[in-house]
Design brief:
This protein is an all-alpha fold. It contains 14 helices and no strands.
């Protein structure tokens, strides 16, 4: 068994108590249902569904655990050292809200909390920065983007990623901060949820049956292309899951429609998930991990999808460091697949996590950072470093949203 440090053991104890209390207050996962639905194959406690097959932490040796712990701590030290005076983590300018939020999430996943311990002040400043990037309509962004007018493509793309990632982190830290900051977070989450649900209901000009329920970039793309995609959608689902954990309300149909969209992205012949419906050429590790994770986080257990996606995942590998196919992203895929594999458990986790962790630890630089992602160099090594931490820390089980 992994010998957890006293610091992380104390954090685990505190988090478990708080999560148990939250569970008594707000009930089952968002979107979960006891009713059997057509084509949903809900798992029961007697099923062989993967979510009843816990990860075996003993497959990682004590030496490996110690190396992982050191790697995570060094990486957090690096990100902390890069923090700017305004609380942000440097990256491509319009990606800074999301990258700063990922730093907070990475620190939380390793047992740190805002206002407490060696990163306490740093995390408070990062949270304040994230809050400062929300505009009047509830969107987290550094650029004013129009729902209908002309705009820079990258700004419109990153706005929804900023929104989902920032919203997710605020849901995770809500209740961990002082009363004044907590009140600001509450207002921000309510405004952000209103924006997300309104944006999801935007009229779709074509192929509504293929796109309804998902999210896309701020400005709609040409009619010949899908109006929604799983990558952006998955972050909005995680935001809703995190907000639900924190006790916030939003229309149930939003998550129901979102999960229906996730299911439409599942590719039965391969077992993978597509970037968008009818995009079989874009079945990637990142999207398959995202699809599985979205189903688990919302309580939509599906034995058929779990088994097929788990088998697909076992055919992938992460030992070719920072390399991926055209539509895939190494660190993005590492994050999603590690989280999904932990949810799937059993050999899905051990055969994914162990080689991934060994590869990440072996390629970490002396300063604690990892290289910029081969396909997303513009986001800087701060982004890849935060994602690597999140890929290494699922076994710590310290982030409420990702608890199994």
């Amino acid at each position: 068994m992994h010998e957890i440090s006293r610091f992380r053991l104390d954090e685990i104890t505190k988090r478990v108590i708080s999560i148990l209390v939250l569970g008594l207050i707000i009930g089952p996962p968002v979107g979960a249902s006891n009713a059997q639905e057509p084509n949903a194959a809900k798992a029961s406690i007697d099923s062989q569904s993967a979510h009843h097959n816990p990860p075996d932490l003993s497959v990682v040796s004590e030496h490996q655990w110690a190396a992982i712990d050191r790697s995570v701590d060094r990486a957090l030290d690096y990100l902390h050292s890069r923090q700017q005076s305004d609380g942000s983590i440097p990256s491509m300018e319009i990606a800074k809200p999301a990258v700063t939020a990922l730093y907070v999430m990475a620190a939380l996943s390793a047992g740190h909390e805002p206002g407490d311990g060696p990163l306490g002040d740093s995390l408070n400043r990062a949270i304040d920065y994230v809050l400062s990037t929300q505009i009047e309509n509830g969107l987290f962004t550094l650029e004013r983007v129009s729902l209908t007018g002309p705009e820079d493509h990258k700004a419109g793309q990153l706005a929804l990623y900023n929104h989902g990632i920032c919203g997710t982190v605020l849901g995770e830290v809500y209740g961990m901060t002082d009363a004044t900051r907590s009140a600001r977070i509450e207002t921000a989450i309510e405004k952000a949820l209103a924006f997300a649900t309104e944006n999801q209901r935007r009229p779709i000009r074509a192929n509504e049956h293929l796109d309804r329920g998902g999210w896309r970039y701020i400005k709609q793309v040409p009619i010949s292309q899908p109006q929604s995609d799983l990558s952006v959608t998955s972050w909005q689902i995680m935001f809703m899951r995190s907000a639900h954990n924190a006790g916030f309300d939003f229309p149930k149909e939003s998550i129901d429609q979102a999960i229906n969209y996730v299911r439409m992205c599942f590719d039965e012949p391969t077992g993978g998930f597509q970037y968008a419906t009818h995009r079989s050429e874009q079945i990637t590790r990142g999207m398959t991990g995202a699809g599985v994770l979205c189903l688990f986080l919302t309580g939509n257990y599906d034995d058929r999808i779990e088994r097929q996606s788990g088998a697909w995942l076992l055919r992938q590998e992460f030992t070719r460091y920072n390399q991926s196919r055209q539509h895939d992203r190494y660190f993005y895929a590492a994050y999603y697949c590690s989280q999904a594999a932990y949810q799937l458990g059993g050999e899905y986790w051990s055969k994914t996590y162990v080689p991934l962790a060994e590869t990440l630890v072996a390629h970490q630089h002396a300063r604690g950072n990892w290289d910029e992602d081969h396909h997303n160099r513009e986001y800087s090594d701060t982004y890849s470093t935060a994602m690597a931490i999140l890929a290494l820390t699922p076994p710590y089980q310290l982030l409420p949203i990702y608890q199994r």
